[in-house]
Amino acid sequence: AQSVAQPEDQVNVAEGNPLTVKCTYSVSGNPYLFWYVQYPNRGLQFLLKYITGDNLVKGSYGFEAEFNKSQTSFHLKKPSALVSDSALYFCAAVYNFNKFYFGSGTKLNVKP
Amino acid sequence: NAGVTQTPKFQVLKTGQSMTLQCAQDMNHEYMSWYRQDPGMGLRLIHYSVGAGITDQGEVPNGYNVSRSTTEDFPLRLLSAAPSQTSVYFCASSYSLGSGGAVHTQYFGPGTRLTVL
Predict the structure, then answer these.
(1) Which of A10, A33, A39, A44 is best to mutate for the B interface (most B CBs within 10 A)?
(2) Per residue in B52-77, pLDDT tens?
């Protein structure tokens, strides 16, 4: 079965510290992986995606993600967190070109 | 461009009532989809369409119907609302996900918050 797992419901980090939001996937074939962010009462906004090529993908707002095929992971990272990064983050994988599978979401809290 | 628009923003229904959630996009995207978002479960795909006249089921299609008569519009119909359908519904669109091996970014609407009593 195709699935995406985000093992942490919530991540707390102090402003200025590095942050990591974890994601693992189980998708047959070549995975296409995405990160989206959702602010309160808003739709999802695209952050970055991995299709092929370099395992380190850079995206919007200083975020990056590292694709690790052997660990089937696609963790989201940022070197220095901002309070404004506080939001709900979703990892997603595309299966068979037509279906997105989303993780359950991780709430990121960045404290001043 | 307005992007992806959804109406209404909020809706309260009684059990057994029917209604249609509207979704429109002005980006000439081939692919459109409907998701529901429930706490702790992320987004789950209800139905999707790869072009006008073509629709298919996602993970949780029961109780919902869709049609795609034009490229721009992709309405979601609740046939007989149930409390289990209380959720936030998101519509999204993108260029064809499978075009030439490329996978395109989905753009999401602002959502419709539905409560079924």
Answers:
(1) A44
(2) 999 999 989 999 999 999 999 999 99
